[in-house]
Amino acid sequence: MTKKPLIVTFLGKSGSGKGTQVKLLRDKFDLDYIGTGELLRERKKTSDFTGTKIAEVIDSGGISPTCVVFFLWMAKLEEFKKKTDFNGIVFDGSPRRIKEAYMLDEALEWYEWNNSVKVILIDISDEEVEKRMLLRANEAGAEKRPEDSVEGIRKRLEWFKEEVGPVINYYEEKGKLIKINGEQTIEKVFEDILKAIENDND
Predict the structure, then answer these.
(1) CA distance linking residue 173 with residue 170, whole number of Å
(2) CATH class of the domain whose range is 6-201
(3) CA 133 → CA 11, 38, 181, distances in Å?
């Protein structure tokens, strides 16, 4: 493990295998974790105004506003800053919008972690997404989710292009983006991630 904490943000389309790589990296380096979806699902359990609104947004398939997401991030970052055995953080699937990218940069600068950030894009084609997601839906059978139809998959791909596309461009322009070919075996993808992180630290 490097002396400075490892702050890694994972981006990727649905079906890219991002979640698997997040878990592998967390386990290898004993990293803390911020999954925006998990934070929102946990927060919606509190039956106050914000919890109820988050529940409404999630249940309708919408995206919670950046201010709410940022508030949840800050609470976790403050918690991690107090740790004496802190190795770093993995952000799973965030930032999802360009506003979130700006705010995350400010937050990491505030906590003095801005020089440790790696942004990893698990890159797969739209065709590969469709193939993987339909296969998953078929395996799920009766339990498959409505969004795993061809139409649902294409809607998510369009959303990724419109919302996450500018985030990818932003980090690429800043020289922070590490693009990994996600159309390989899980082991090879992870090997490439480790090499990229190591080379980026040299």
Answers:
(1) 5
(2) alpha beta
(3) 17, 21, 18
Express each pLDDT in 142-198 by its tens digit: 555 656 788 888 988 999 999 999 999 999 999 999 999 999 999 999 999 999 998
pLDDT of residue 1: 41
Distance from C-alpha of 185 to C-alpha of 17, rounded to nearest angstrom: 10
Cβ(181)–Cβ(25) below 8 Å: no
Give dist(CA 178, CA 27) in Å, integer: 20
pLDDT of 34 > 50? The answer is yes
Tell me the β-bridge partners of 92: 10, 35
Write the pLDDT tens digit of every residue in 79-117: 999 999 999 999 997 898 999 999 999 999 999 998 889
CB burial of residue 57 (10 Å; 0-12, 13-18, 19+): middle
CA distance 165 to 145: 25
**In the chain, where the domains are located:** 6-201
Positive/negative CA dihedral, 51, 52, 54, 59? positive
Q: pTM higher than 0.90, yes or no? A: no
- Name the strands in the sheet holding 6-12, side by side, starting at the edge strand that comes first in the sequence: 32-35, 88-92, 6-12, 117-123, 177-181
CA–CA separation, 80 vs 74, rounded Å? 10
